[in-house]
Known about the structure:
Radius of gyration: 20 Å
Structural class: alpha/beta
Shape: elongated
Low-confidence stretches: none
Helix content: 25-40%
CATH superfamily of the largest domain: SPOUT methyltransferase, trefoil knot domain
Strand content: 25-35%
CATH architecture of the largest domain: 3-Layer(aba) Sandwich
CATH class of the largest domain: Alpha Beta
Oligomer: single chain
Mean pLDDT: 96
Amino acid sequence: xxxxxxxxxxxxGEKILFSNEQSTxxxxxxxxxxxxxxxxxxxxSYEKTVRLDLVxxxxxxGTIIKRRKGTSEPRVKVTLYQALIKADRFEYTLxxxxxxxxxxxxxxxxxxxxxxxxxxxxxxxxRKIIVESAEQSGRVILPALAEPVSLDKAFKxxxxxxxxxxxxxxxxxxxxxxxxxxxxxxxxxxxxSIFIGPxxxxxxxxxxxxKNNGVIPVSLGKRILRSETAGIATAVGVLYESGDMG
Length: 246
């Protein structure tokens, strides 16, 4: 069944009101009709099976016929602190990050971050990408998108196990750290923070600052990954070791 994110304020009792955009998609793109079933979630970790009642180009409504706790969310909460990179590459990271199970995204500004004008329309677009990816991938909680912060502030405010992939780290691999920290035994809602640098990576001074704040530099192997790839690869490794992909 097709899935839609519908905020709680559009739910009244057992009735669901879809937005104009969703109504157009339901009626004109998906060509669904009265009596068809869809799935709706509001970010509260529950999802609902909804029977469509009124299907119109501008206004669709439905009735909730079943509620259930979602099972798609990872046990370990992964926050990706991604340095700002070119817009299309950052959007790729958001889209794929939501799909694999990242819980939150926090854009960071480091010494090598390229100048970037982050407009309100860009933020709106990024939030829309998160919603669409959550709908497609079966998520029941919308990953958070924080305001950009400095790398130093991110080091100080991050939580849980903190990892920073670095191309010059040759002694400590990510698998070694994850198994030593026993990610698989972490309690539910345990946190892992991942720091990913921009094009050009982190400076030696930034890596030292990371160490001073309890962040562990790790190697991702013999190959150098792009910024938009490194965060996804690291998050997949964490989620795999935690048992989420078993």
